[in-house]
Amino acid sequence: MTAQATLLSVNGTARAVTAPGETRLTSVLRDALGLTGTKVGCDAGDCGACTVLLDGVQVCACLVPLAQAEGRSVTTVEGLAATAMGAALQRAFLHHGAAQCGICTPGMLMAATELLAANPRPTEAEAMASLGGVLCRCTGYRKILEAVLAAHGFLEDGRPPIMPAAGCAVGSRMPRADGLAKVTGADRFGADAAPAGSLWLRAVRSPYPRARFAFGDWAPLLARHPGLIRVLTAADIPGRNGFGIYPDIKDQPVFCEREARYRGDCLCALVSDRATLDAIRFDELPITWEVLEPVTLDGAPGGEALHARWPDNVLTTGRVVSGDAEAALSASVHVAAIGIETSFVEHAYIEPEAGWARRIGQRVEVFACTQAPYMDLEEVAGVLGIPQAAVRIIPSACGGGFGGKLDVSIQPMLAVAAWLLDRPVRAVLPRSESMVSSTKRHPARITARAGCDATGRLTGFAFEGLYDTGAYASWGPTVAGRVPVHAMGPYRVPAVASRARAILTSNPPSGAFRGFGVPQAAIAQEALWDRLADSVGLDRLEFRALNALRAGDTTATGQVLEHSVGLVACLDALRPRWQALRAEAAAANARGGVRRHGVGIACMWYGIGNTGMSNPSTMRVTLGPDGLVFHNGAVDIGQGSTTVLLQIAADALGLPAGGFRLVLGDTDLTADAGKTSASRQTFVSGRAAAAAGKALRDAVLLRANAGPEAKLAWDGSELLVDGRPLALEAPLEGIGRFDPPTVPLDANGQGIPYATYGFAAQVAALSVDMELGTVHLRRIVAAHDVGRAINPTLVEGQIHGGIAQGIGLALMEEYLPGRTENLHDYLIPTVGDVPEIECILVEEREPLGPFGAKGIGEPALVPTAPAIFSAIRDATGATIMRIPALPHRVLDAIGR
Amino acid sequence: MTAYRRPTSLQEALALLAEAPRPPLLLAGGTDVYPARAAGEAWMQPSDRPLLDLSALPELAGIEERADHHRIGALVTWAALRDAALPCWFDALRQAAAQVGGAQVQNRGTLVGNLCNASPAADGVPALLALDAEVELAGRRGTRRLALRDFILGNRQTGRAPDEIATAVIVPKATPGARARFEKLGARAYLVISIVMVAVVVEATDGRIARARVAIGACSPVAQRLPALEAALTGLPVEAAAAIPQPEHLAPLSPIDDVRATAGYRRHTALVLLRRALSAPAEARAA
Questions:
Q1: Which of A285, A624, B98, B223 is most buried (most C-beta within 10 Å)?
Q2: Which residues form the FAD-binding PCMH-type domain (chain B) (predicted)?
């Protein structure tokens, strides 16, 4: 059969496409027409990333057969700028910081375009209804709504955004330096590009949580599928068949050997052309199984060993002990206790793992979405058994990470395939495969007790956390190490005994997820304060203010906090809102009805950077024939480091931020900035960027023989120093490096785990339907001490996004292997689930930080869920102990 | 029949269906067909079922008002229903249409496709059950109608014969002034699969309920009408309706525990939502 060409109009141009009629329109646009601005997040209509307009109506292109588009008009993000409103909307998105990682942005833009075409000045409710089908995991939706509602105001003003002047970048709301590509669809994510002639790789994964297996004869499969070029198994790994975060724990195999340890564990990989791969069925594979009983958190401690190296299944124990907590609790006037259980939480970045690898001589290049290019480099070198210098990692635009793209996923197997076949090989994980195979937030079972004296001053705190770390170590040790330090929260507690254990099970590997176990701990800790406050008869905010850490206090690890302890300032800022919202809730409750209103509060602290370990960053700024170049190896996963670090470097140098060319992420072209995690890039890489900018400034001034106060400026492409052109005989460079000073923790958790901490408090106002158990958020007020807001718009964006993930953690997200492996059974917040958010930025300068700045990525999320549970308690009297608080659990808790 | 066909007349479609060596999957808006494919593909279970695309059949298009019923063609989307000017007894169905999926699903998904997919949580079923809707089925031997309650046989099972196409849903007219209401309970604002759904259609004469039709979804393999409750409501003043539903009225339901909720919660909230749905007309009058 010869397929007939299908004619359709795409962005106003007639196109003829020869493909089967049932081909998804996404595939037509991306693969046949090269319009990769339309993203694929799920292939199931669950995420809306592929939203395009079909005859002006928003549709998920993944659900439209090519034949149904025949003779019709398709508009994609690439066609948006051609209309006045489309271009205005793009400018509004840039101005309002509505794009973070950018993976949902094309879908959001197209959904909004349908609305704005009919109604240029919509209400918020109308905008929500239009955007309800597009999921965003970064922004918390609020800035997207702002941009859509304001788009009409950008119709007249076609000018590019105004960039801050020299020396004025820090503190400005300059638009994202990488934003334009995100609103035009030009950004290249992992699935958007690959070398010509790339083969495709498909991982074969275990459907069983625990099973022994054996491969039979592959010959029949290879004969049946002549296009199948290679089957890669453990035997094909040239180097070490193992990867893992810690240099001494490479326990996760690229390809399993004889035993699969979780549902999704990778057995082998098939490499061929795409059509061949798509036709191969799992039951054709020569695999025989011996299914074993999975080990769960109930049976794991002291049960059958899952790894010989950890005979009791205890991967790591973290501990902080100061004073005698038991004695303090016994002597306390008031004591409270709580036990909670949380669930696996999926990162649900809208971009599934994707990328390619190719061999160039004796080197290998890997292009993929990642949060940690240099860690990927080490893993790929180890797996291939080649020197690290022979590996180049080129990060793609990263469509969300949140910790989930810190571990390697497809990188090692792609590298192995490309290395052995000497051909480029690419892979894109389907949504369900991404969810099944990737790491998760640790489910935690926590018991905690706390005591205070008659005036409400805390006396002692005891915490025991059992964290299900799943099949492999991943970031389990990091979680077990970080939790006990943070478990008592940002409060003065004289006696502390906190312990967290990471337990190996047959579950998906639990790894890094925004907060590294601290959000789970904060839920328990903050519930205790509410109870103690009630016992003492203190207002719940005032109880926290009474006990809040202040500058000069000593923490449970023995660290004296000298500077930048802004919790009291956060609480002071919240107090009037707290009182007003409490009064509103009381008034609403007095009116009666089935809804009970409540207001909750929670605080948090968060250590910036690695726990008691070196985590340096190096940045470089050069001035030469190719202009002023910022070599920045920090991966921007949407949080904004590309922009923030540029602002810092620009002001340190004294030239406008708009005048830099950016070289980003590529390990051949940038130095190791460390991973994008632990809320460290603004603080650690920011200090390095400031030092690099300053070093280049010093070099320029030396060359110009100018004093430290000299003014730098551009005259076209010529650099002026105090008005005089600078003669450059050779390129100049400035290199900056920073490693936050810490002291490793001893056996009792004593030391200086972090150089600085973020502090925050959030208030949540909500109502609970007492008959249905449903929770309706009304408002969240978030006060965050960020040291210095380098870019307030981006800081707010982080707070909004963290709050949205906190809402998900609190109310709906529950990953159940085998059951919620897609984005319609696994629920993350939609645009309608995030209430109005007020951000209050508190700036208690951190002397170590660049221009006083600290991190914000994780602090944004930590207090949200506890504040929501506090508000549910306030509204109903019920304490939520099983999380997420799905409606039936809330109703259960109310009934207890 | 080859893997994919898109006929342009019902006759051609029925011929293709009759001659197909393997029963093809019928495709309209694609909002169920493609997700199912994706789920299979993720575990290397590609679908090799041929597709018969019904989207170009003129006989399946549009909403028509006839003497004693409305005919909703099988290609009518949720969005078309949501935005249509339809009599008041369609309000529950239109509320369901406005809450299914997100705008993209509403723009593509069809009501009849939702019936044919026969999910226990199908958003279109309770309202149509409460309207005593029938499904129009075309075959080469002619057209027949099947009451919706007889059409959906179980989870993902329907009474459509392999050589038939569901061409429309037929909705008998209710009395003018009938009040219809839909309540959907889910764990988030958009794109949510229902935990419980309630649809009621109440027809009243002089303030007394002449006929009440009540259906509950997502609480049994197939959404259920509640005949005992309907009987109990008949003849009562409209204002009294909300107090009537009692646990024993839920006897036809058989809810299960799943990832979204427990069986007990479903029973409880079904009753709560019923009472709310039945109180709505009175409240609306008061307002």
A1: B223
A2: 1-176
